[in-house]
Structure formats: structure tokens, C-alpha cells
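Sharing a chain and its predicted structure for anyone who wants a worked example. Both blocks are below, sequence first, C-alpha cells second.
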Amino acid sequence: MNKIKAIYDVVKSMRDKKEREGIVQVKVEEDGQQLLKFSNEFQHLVDGHVKCKIQSEWNYEGKEGKHESTTEFKRNGEGRCPFHKRFKHGENGGHGPGFKSKADTILFFLRLLNELKVEEQGENLQFSLVLDDEVKKLKEKMQGKFEKNHSFHHHPLKGLLMEKVLLMEKPQICVNVVANKNKEVEKVTVSLQGTFEKDGQHELNAAFEVHFSK
């Protein structure tokens, strides 16, 4: 099967969808104990309105809590982020990354494309990717963002989780995407597993899932 054609068909199908509905779920555990549980039931309507129902639970470093909320808003224009201009021109006064950095990014994604597997399962398509050797490059990119992004300092749990991921020696990331016969994504799963040393050895497991019902 032509991987490029399969990816193109799925991306085009998802781009052309007028409405989307589903749920995002995130779970993070350390040494078998739950650190974070998060879910977001969402609806993206044809008129641009977005509805979300968010639930979260956390338990880390003696801090426990729960949160539940609903929100509704209308997307800006064609769904663009209101901060689009900020990122379009780079965050360094219009001075974006140099050619070598851009070339490295292109090569990174080409290697991912080479490793990507596409299989037909009945009427569905399954895309799968296991990241082992490329995780080092990802960690380097994450390390740079972690050091520069001050938002981590204002969100302790976010910063704590990022720190644990960066401490992992050989984390494994698995990505699976299932698309139906209409080339519409039905499910996305991303899992992260690994160990790190900090006052002893610890095991971290994280799972991210998106289920589209419409």
C-alpha cells in the first residue's frame, strides 16, 4: 500500500469534515499509582461553535484534587488559533530557526515516515509507529522547549511530568491510528513507557487516546 496516498486520503478526509465529536482521554501512572486522569468530551459544530466537558483528577507530591467544567466558544475565523501570527513569524522577533535546524526537522519527519507502518484490516486502515531511536531527538527538542517555556513554572504538574519524561533513559513511544472505510479517523492512541532514576528507580506509563464518534 502506498503510505503517502493513505496519509493524504485520511488527512484530506479529516480536513473536509464539517463537524467533529468525540472524547480525549489521558492517564498517567508512576509505579502503578495514578498521577493524572483527564477527559474532554468535545463537539466541533458546523457553525464554528465548540462545546467541551472537561473532567480531571490529580494526585502528586501529596496534592490531590478534582475538576469538572463545561465550556462553549466560537472558533476564530476558519478555526485558526488567535495566536497564529505569533507563531507564523517565530518568537524571536521574526528570526526563526536556521536552515540546518529546518533540515534536521525535515529529516526527522522523513525518518518517521519511513518507520510508519500502514496495514489494511478489513475495511479499516491502521497506521502504527514505534519510536525507539528517534526518542532521543524528541527529548532534545522537548528539553529546549522545557527550558524556554515559562508556562511550565506556572503549572507544577505539567512541569513535573515533563521533568520525569526527560529523565527517562530509554522511553518507548507507540502511536496507533485507525481510520474507517471513509478514510475518517476513528481512534488515535499514543502510549509512553519508560523508567527513570530519581531517589531510586521509577516506572512511568502514560496513555493518550482520542475517540471520534462523528
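Comments welcome. Helices lie at 3-16, 84-88, 99-115, 135-148, 151-154, 156-167.
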